[in-house]
Amino acid sequence: MKVIFLEDVRGKGKRGEVKEVPDGYAQNFLIKNGKAKAASRQAMSQLKGQQRLKRSVKKKNLRKPRLLKQNWKTIRQLLS
């Protein structure tokens, strides 16, 4: 059974990973304890949406230092 891990499970998978695990293990342990959910089409599209959002936030955060650097250069030029 394919599952999406909702949290890190030592030796099995990390949060956000999609892996094939034995049916019994998935149903009796992972899903029952809220550590994973079945990888249905809906769950997979939701995961992809979350990953896209995470990437866009990361890109925005990478741009901030560059903008600050440019602003400081402009301020220094104005004060000179």
Automatic annotation (TrEMBL):
<dbReference type="GO" id="GO:0006412">
    <property type="term" value="P:translation"/>
</dbReference>
<feature type="domain" description="Ribosomal protein L9">
    <location>
        <begin position="13"/>
        <end position="40"/>
    </location>
</feature>
<dbReference type="GO" id="GO:1990904">
    <property type="term" value="C:ribonucleoprotein complex"/>
</dbReference>
<keyword id="KW-0689">Ribosomal protein</keyword>
<dbReference type="InterPro" id="IPR000244">
    <property type="entry name" value="Ribosomal_bL9"/>
</dbReference>
<keyword id="KW-0694">RNA-binding</keyword>
<dbReference type="InterPro" id="IPR020070">
    <property type="entry name" value="Ribosomal_bL9_N"/>
</dbReference>
<dbReference type="Pfam" id="PF01281">
    <property type="entry name" value="Ribosomal_L9_N"/>
</dbReference>
<keyword id="KW-0687">Ribonucleoprotein</keyword>
<dbReference type="GO" id="GO:0019843">
    <property type="term" value="F:rRNA binding"/>
</dbReference>
<keyword id="KW-0699">rRNA-binding</keyword>
<dbReference type="GO" id="GO:0003735">
    <property type="term" value="F:structural constituent of ribosome"/>
</dbReference>
<dbReference type="GO" id="GO:0005840">
    <property type="term" value="C:ribosome"/>
</dbReference>
<dbReference type="InterPro" id="IPR036935">
    <property type="entry name" value="Ribosomal_bL9_N_sf"/>
</dbReference>
<dbReference type="InterPro" id="IPR020594">
    <property type="entry name" value="Ribosomal_bL9_bac/chp"/>
</dbReference>
<comment type="similarity">
    <text>Belongs to the bacterial ribosomal protein bL9 family.</text>
</comment>
<protein>
    <recommendedName>
        <fullName>Large ribosomal subunit protein bL9</fullName>
    </recommendedName>
</protein>
<dbReference type="InterPro" id="IPR009027">
    <property type="entry name" value="Ribosomal_bL9/RNase_H1_N"/>
</dbReference>
